Amino acid sequence: MTYKLFYATGSAAMGVRTILEEVGADYELIQSTIDMDKPRPPKQLAINPNGWVPVLIWDDHAMYECAAITIFLCDRHAEAGLAPRQDEPERGVFLQTLVYFSSSVQNAFQLNYYPDRFADTPADEASAVRRGIRRLRETWGVIDDQIGDSQWILGDRFSAADIYLFMLTTWLNTSLGQPRVDKFPNVQRIANAVMARPSVQKVYAEWIAAQ
Q1: What does pTM read for this prediction?
Q2: Structural domain boundaries of the chain?
């Protein structure tokens, strides 16, 4: 079986692609875009009318939302050990962290990158941008405190949550007033460790070379 992944550089689809590499699955990339002025593939829009990536297809099934796809792939390929099983105590923190990433950290990025979605008028967009920057500092601070002295998000156990963390750190852009990752030393430590993995070196080769 080959997965199909609607994909765009710089998007959350890169995190899903990294998971596919980690589990050793066969996959095909279908190029899409995150440019709001460019059209999306019709099949992608039929699955996700929001127009966002990632969108994952397998057999006659499909789904979207990065955190949901991450959990699905980890459970479907449990032999890769990227997530705790449902009966393991770390499962709660794993799910909690992925949902926090998707609902809080990613939302803060959206405030900053797409202020028109959160403002009634163009005149109000600057306020949304400022709130997004403050919220990025707040949410990354929560994650940094959660990690503490642990080697990984789940203590001494590497998981897909660490890949998700790395993915989100690649979106930080100081030229837009967003905080530097080194403001969150525990986050930075895990991101640096994840970056050394072969899957990340392959998927993020262009981004890594630009750093």
Answers
A1: 0.96
A2: 2-80, 91-210
